[in-house]
């Protein structure tokens, strides 16, 4: 009995510490940026421009604008929660090879980008880059693409603007829904300061919506992506289920590229 009491006390202290950690350090759990020196030189096997856009609150946001030969349109790409443009620039190159210009930005504190990150800032920054593209491209030539965390940002943006299509790779229903898979025993609804309610944003998207998700995703479950798909009121929607696909390897599957090529024709 004494051992059981000690275990209960230890477990209680553990839960308190874990709860405090999730609350006070949640940004470090959600956002995993890597930094680049401001004089870092990008190098890719494609034609591109490096750009910086200044926000109203003084942040300086870095992006890469890739150029295809005789482009079919442009993809505004919002990347996942880890890394920087030295990595994501390589990841988007296949879209350039498929005949699309691509603009991919680094979020605040990622790569060369500066500024304090917040949920509202992410949405405002996404709008800034949409406006930048809309000065050159017609709205119907802009495809908004979001991967993982970036899928929520992309969905919010598409709910406020016209675009040709919204493509989401490994999206979650909401950040709370994704967090429950790891910390279901914690009072997450009270702890999380970031909502990212993709299921609410998606109600306002009028463009066609396409979702790509792997069945073996252990970061954002297939169930979360499927629940988001089921919440779409838009009749022009489709989900591409990638059997055995996980969170970061959909590009290894022929089924993924067959679907992408079909959507980008």
Structure in words:
Helix 4 crosses helix 5. Helix content is 40%, strand content 20%. The chain has 265 residues and is an alpha/beta fold. The protein has two domains: 30 residues; 230 residues, Alpha/Beta hydrolase fold, catalytic domain (Rossmann fold), CATH 3.40.50.
Question: What are the key terms here?
Answer:
265 residues; two-stranded parallel ribbon; alpha/beta; Rossmann fold; 2 domains; globular
Overall helicity? 25-40%
Rg is: 20 Å
Which oligomeric form is depicted? single chain
Poorly predicted runs of 5 or more residues: 14-18
Strand order of the largest sheet: 2-3-6-4-7-8-9-10
SSE blueprint:
Layout: H1 2-24, H2 26-30, E1 32-33, E2 47-54, E3 60-67, E4 74-78, E5 82-83, H3 85-97, E6 101-105, H4 119-134, E7 142-147, H5 149-160, E8 165-169, H6 175-183, H7 188-191, H8 198-201, E9 209-214, H9 222-230, E10 237-242, H10 254-263
Parallel strand pairs: 1-5, 4-6, 4-7, 7-8, 8-9, 9-10
Antiparallel strand pairs: 2-3, 3-6
Helix pairs in contact: 4-5
């Amino acid at each position: 009995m004494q051992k059981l009491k000690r275990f209960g006390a230890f477990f209680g202290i553990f839960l308190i510490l874990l709860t405090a950690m999730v609350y006070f350090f949640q940004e470090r759990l959600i956002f995993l940026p890597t930094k680049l020196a401001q004089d870092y030189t990008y190098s890719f096997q494609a034609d591109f421009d490096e750009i910086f856009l200044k926000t109203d609150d003084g942040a300086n946001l870095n992006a890469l604008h890739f150029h295809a030969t005789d482009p079919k349109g442009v993809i505004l790409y919002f990347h996942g929660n880890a890394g920087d443009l030295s990595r994501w620039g390589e990841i988007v190159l296949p879209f350039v090879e498929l005949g699309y210009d691509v603009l991919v930005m680094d979020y605040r504190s990622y790569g060369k980008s500066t500024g304090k990150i917040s949920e509202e800032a992410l949405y405002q920054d996404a709008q800034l880059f949409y406006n930048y593209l809309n000065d050159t491209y017609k709205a119907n030539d802009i495809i908004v693409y979001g991967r993982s965390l970036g899928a929520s940002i992309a969905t919010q943006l598409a709910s406020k603007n016209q675009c040709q299509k919204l493509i989401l790779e490994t999206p979650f229903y909401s950040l709370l829904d994704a967090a429950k898979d790891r910390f279901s025993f914690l009072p997450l609804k009270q702890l999380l300061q970031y909502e990212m309610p993709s299921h609410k944003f998606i109600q306002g998207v009028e463009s066609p919506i396409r979702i790509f998700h792997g069945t073996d995703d252990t970061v954002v479950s297939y169930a979360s992506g499927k629940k988001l798909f089921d919440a779409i009121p838009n009749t022009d929607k489709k989900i591409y289920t990638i059997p055995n696909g996980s969170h970061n390897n959909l590009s290894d599957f022929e089924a993924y590229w067959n679907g992408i090529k079909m959507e980008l024709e």
